[in-house]
Amino acid sequence: MSDRSALLDTLTNASQRHLDELVEWLKIPSISSDTSHQQDVQRAAAWLVEKFESAGLKVEMVPTQGHPLVLAETPPVDGAPVVVVYGHYDVQPVEPLDQWIDGPFDPTVRDGNLYARGATDDKGQVLTHVQSVCDWLASGQPLPLQIKFLIEGEEEVGSENLERMLPG
Description:
Distance between the termini: 49 Å
Order of helices and strands: HHHEEEEEHEH
């Protein structure tokens, strides 16, 4: 079996695990604009840190004046470019609740689509990148470039603390 074939098999066989992981993360009500969900936002960041750590990436949760940043990176690749993946783990408020068929933090598959707050904006998109890198590394194949992740918890409220953390 070729290296490429082994990688494709790894990714194909992981689809249910990928869905299960996304459902688990979507259950965390990481509403950054609601102070009553401050611990939930922290849990969402910690969930992501654990995912990166379990794949062997160098990872750091960076405290800010608000919600933390999650930084992770794959090993450097000599002479290869570096790609930065940006995303966020916070979500919009869920009101009005009566507009939801199922609870916003009770992920539900209907007609082949997954419905929950954050499923596409942005936990779903972020996790697609994370799972791709983690599964690639798990296949035993080295990445052809280095990937760095910057995932924040305040995009839905203006990213002020991200701006404060960036070099001037």
